[in-house]
Amino acid sequence: TGQFTDKLRVPEALTFDDVLLRPKESRVEPDEADVSTRVSRNVEVNVPILSAAMDTVTESQMAIAMARQGGLGVLHRNLDVEEAVAEVERVKRADELVIRDVVTADPDQTVREVDAMMDREGVSGAPVTDDEGEVLGIISGTDIRPYLEVGDRDEVREAMTDEVVTASEEVTAREALELMYEHKIERVPIVDENDRLTGLVTMQGILQRREYGNAARDEGGHLRVGVAVGPFETDRAVAVDEAGADVLFIDCAHAHNLNVIDGAREIRESVEADVVVGNVGTREAAEDVVDFADGIKVGIGPGSICTTRVVSGAGMPQITAVAEVADVAAEQDVPVIADGGIRYSGDAIKAIAAGADAVMLGSYFAGTDEAPGRVITVDGKKYKQYRGMGSVGAMQSGDGDRYLKDEPEEDEEYVPEGVEAAEPYKGSLESELHQLVGGMQSGMGYVGAATIPEFKERSEFVRVSSAGQTEGHPHDVMITDEAPNYSPSE
Ligand code: XMP
């Protein structure tokens, strides 16, 4: 023995393919397994899945779709602060019960003008207000149509319905709907105590909200959204917090850097939103952040586009990393998110068995319609771009401080920790999520756990040899039809 040979007595660290869930006695039907969870101390979601804060994965369109399906999108930070704020607002305004930027008509406008305006704005009706904002009436396609044939220069005040049913700010979706049924109308202006317009509730809006009954919403009924911020970006953190972000994610490849922890602490003290700190991958790192973090995100190099482990020689296989962090976090009741390396639904549920409360995926979603970027065709096959946030391309359009590097003068001076790639085009997010959640529920069924907390308690692992791993994939056959949740090339 000696200083260095001792170092070779290394502990083992495992990842997804090294383990399987031990099947157990069960009365749980997979469809009934409840997958709701927490992503941070105060933020609950109905589906334990987050989309990665990457510029080829999550902008507002993805975040809206994720929240509507019950999960959480985390907006990337390769945007300037104003644009990040606008993105948060876009998510918060989607599916809003009360529409705020209401298209209004003026009583002196002509019917023809209002018709053109409604066309332009894509609305089918508009409250008519005076200069003070007081609601005088409401005009819709039905009011206008008879005039368009004969008197399209008539004034709106002639054509409008002047008996308007309004409601106050306190109105609930159910009350608004009752008003609409009772009066056979499709929109109810919201007014203050002086009858001034403050918003609008529409039938279409209410029905749309109903369609997403499983959506992840805040107390006010708005879709939830996460936002990535750099560890030293207190300004960005405060701005997106004020815009209504539910959870901020300290976005760093090595959050056990003590300067990063200082920065994260400062951000934690400056905002109302929950702050998830990451990424970490060891027990010691978890111990250093657990006292102030509202959630801890785990993943040092497991990602599909990551080269951190080969470039730096550092990393932690993901199952062991999650388990080490979860041991510490569970003591303080802090949620853990497993970030990166998930290729199949089975990997996602294994991460939860290892102690995570939710999982974050990048490549799995990068090929969907809702991810930024366009579909490209190579040799007749469709793809979408997917790149690491530590790739040269992503660092050029943002900055490299996720990897704690200063911006170099020349492009060739970048030391990237990620690659630029393409993902097969996959269609809508909804069907991808359906497969992912359905597979995770199957895992819960095999273990006999009806909820995520119960699954974390009850699940056990067995170790898989490489022969066992081969046995687990389709083998000795030629696959003739592609399954929606299995691709042999992955
Ligand atoms: P998956 O496997 O789901 O991983 O595609 C997504 C996660 O990978 C991390 N990430 C990176 N890691 N270099 C890295 O080492 C990179 O360039 C990079 N970009 C993203 C990130 O945690 C993401 O959620």
UniProtKB/TrEMBL annotation:
Positions of IMP binding: S304, D339, G340, G341, G362, S363, Y386, R387, G388, M389, G390, E417
Domain CBS: residue ranges: 98-155, 160-219
Entry-linked PROSITE patterns: CBS, IMP_DH_GMP_RED
Names of the cofactor(s): K(+)
Domain of life where this protein originates: Archaea
Any Pfam family matching the protein: IMPDH
GO molecular function, one term: metal ion binding
Keyword check for Protease: no
Residues at the active site: C306, R402
SUPFAM superfamilies per record: CBS-domain pair, Inosine monophosphate dehydrogenase (IMPDH)
Pathway: Purine metabolism; XMP biosynthesis via de novo pathway; XMP from IMP: step 1/1
Region of interest (Disordered), residue spans: 466-490
Keyword Oxidoreductase annotated: yes
InterPro entries in the record: Aldolase_TIM (IPR013785), CBS_dom (IPR000644), CBS_dom_sf (IPR046342), IMP_DH (IPR005990), IMP_DH/GMP_Rdtase_CS (IPR015875), IMP_DH_GMPRt (IPR001093)
Catalytic activity: IMP + NAD(+) + H2O = XMP + NADH + H(+)
GO biological process: GMP biosynthetic process; GTP biosynthetic process
Chain residues that bind K(+): G301, G303, C306, E471, G472, H473
Binding site for NAD(+): D251, C252, A253, G299, I300, G301
Signal sequence bounds: none
Family assignment from sequence similarity: Belongs to the IMPDH/GMPR family.
Cited function: Catalyzes the conversion of inosine 5'-phosphate (IMP) to xanthosine 5'-phosphate (XMP), the first committed and rate-limiting step in the de novo synthesis of guanine nucleotides, and therefore plays an important role in the regulation of cell growth.
Subunit structure as annotated in this protein's UniProt entry: Homotetramer.
Name under which the protein is recorded: Inosine-5'-monophosphate dehydrogenase
Source lineage: Archaea, Methanobacteriati, Methanobacteriota, Stenosarchaea group, Halobacteria
